[in-house]
Amino acid sequence: MSLNRIDAARSALVLVDYQQRLLPAIHRSEQVMTEALLLADVALELGLAVIGTEQNPAGLGPNDARVRQRCASTLAKMYFDACEDGLLQALPAGPDGAPIDVVIAGCEAHVCLMQTALGLRRAGHAVWVCAPACGSREPEDHALAMQRLAGAGAVIVSTEMVAFEWLHSCRHERFKAVLQRLKTPRS
After folding, report:
1. Cα separations (Å) of 139 from 26, 131, 146, 152?
2. 93-128: pLDDT as tens digits
């Protein structure tokens, strides 16, 4: 799978648990949020589905408003693996009926993000994990999650890797708009 390009025509973006009460505890939360918002903006610019999840929203509150407004739908869940709470049914169907590719990012990297990505892999989806847009309270947990996910067949990528693979060519009609977003300072 790592030799395959992330094809925008058969991709969706899943944003896992960027919740108001959780974010203050996340290591480098502002950088994580900046990357997640950029990823979502590129997906929307290219017409991709963006789906959010919220873990126990009664306890952890809703997703940050900036994430919520970018999601076509937000799935409330109680399982750490969103697939067990309806994520698979919420994903759009692929053009050929095959499982679509999923680009995923979220919090906490070693809990809900990891378990959801593993659930997607078990369901037959190609999974691309955008590491800079993922966060955990402890950096070591983030690193271990990325290592485990790579070992399970998910491909670890950056925000720009995803954006340029979705574009595929500088001739893409939305290339200049996406490039402008990517050139905006993120730090």
Report:
1. 9, 12, 11, 20
2. 887 877 889 999 999 999 999 999 999 999 999 999
Which of 97, 105, 145 minimizes the C-alpha distance to 124? Answer: 97
- 8 Å CB contact between 142 and 27: yes
Question: In this structure, what DSSP letter does residue 112 have?
Answer: I
Q: Which amino acid is at 25?
A: A
Q: pLDDT tens digits, residue range 51-72? A: 999 999 999 999 999 999 999 9
pTM summary value? 0.95
Domains recognised in the chain with CATH numbers: 8-183 (3.40.50.850)
Taking Cα atoms as reference points, which of 112, 113, 184 lies closest to residue 154? 113
- Written as six digits, the tokens of 170 are 């500088």
